Amino acid sequence: MATPDPLLVFDRAVLRQRRDRAARGWDRQAFLKREIAERLVERLDDVRRSFALALDLGCHGDEVALALQQSTVGRRTAVEQLVRSDLGLAFARRASGPAVVADEEALPFAPQSFDLVMSAMSLHWVNDLPGTLIQIGRILKPDGLFLGAMLGGGTLWQLRQALAAAESEIEGGLSPRVSPFADLRDAAGLLQRAGFALPVADGETIEVDYESALALMRDLGAMGEGNLVVERRRGLARRATLLRAAEIYGERFALPSGRVAASFEVLFLHGWAPHASQPKPLKPGSAARRLAEALDTAEHSAGEKVERS
Predict the structure, then answer these.
(1) What is the 3-state secondary structure (H, E, C) of the chain?
(2) Which residue range is the domain that position 111 belongs to?
(3) Tell me, what CATH number does 179's domain have?
(4) Within the chain, which residues score under 70 in pLDDT?
């Protein structure tokens, strides 16, 4: 039997199928992508420049394009032309501008093609995230900007707990039922490893309330955001397990209204393609003023003991 590839965490063939299916009723499921796209576009407010050609990587229902259009009035940043791409053909067909079907793991664009690459709610399904970030850096022009938003490791922690408890109780074991995502503490390091200059990462949590845990699970399926772990348990989950998970969810995470809470952690990534004009860190020893002087304290050489008073 062949040894599974450790880099193949997600089943992207199934992801493509689910994306095409989700596109059919996307208008009813787009609320989370719309919110994340709006927050991502807001981060352009601090960038005082225009971008001639931009790429929306993982466009879904054109939420990034819509957010850019709605925020044009009074905005200092302008995107002159936006190219959309999506893993699924059905979503690419929904785009209101130029669009291509493209896999985030094998970008088909020429080096230094874009001034700006934006990606909202797509990169958390990439198997080799550092490799994809390297490709994004390659298709950016020097001093081009990458802005990304992806689901983080704190996403759906309530559902993870409820499913784990139910499965352990009923089936006597655990299998990955909610996909693993990156952590915030690793995000800026990934950008730096990929060669981006001035990398910044921050996180926000979006809280959504649902009628029940079963309603949440149905919504995730309709959005194409269900479990895609390659080593997931095949076939339909046992009905008894899902019903018990919903009971546990309601017991642990019910709101005063009787509905249940679901958390979506969003990691926002910000990095620039290197360029000579960008600020550079000072060389060690080049400071004009000593740190000890600025802090009004005594300076001690390495290895010198300091007595605590």
Answers:
(1) CCCCCCCCCECHHHHHHHHHHHHHCHHHCCHHHHHHHHHHHHHHHHCCCEEEEEEEECCCCCHHHHHHHHCCCCCCCEEEEEEEEECCHHHHHHCCCCEEECECCECCCCCCCEEEEEEECCHHHCCCHHHHHHHHHHHEEEEEEEEEEEECCCCCHHHHHHHHHHHHHHCCCCCCCCCCCCCHHHHHHHHHHCCCEEEEEEEEEEEEEECCHHHHHHHHHHCCCCCCECCCCCCCCCHHHHHHHHHHHHHHHECCCCCEEEEEEEEEEEEECCCCCCCCCCCCCCCCCCHHHHHCCCCCCCCCCCCCC
(2) 12-279
(3) 3.40.50.150
(4) 1-8, 72-77, 172-180, 228-237, 281-309
pLDDT digits (tens, 9 = 90+) for 242-270: 899 999 999 999 999 999 999 999 999 99
Question: Looking at the 3D structure of the chain, how many domains does it have?
Answer: 1
Please write the tens of the pLDDT for every residue from 103-124.
999 999 999 999 999 999 999 9
For residue 294, tell me if it sits in a domain: no
Q: Is residue 285 part of a domain?
A: no
Give domain status of residue 288, yes or no: no
> 150 lies in a domain?
yes
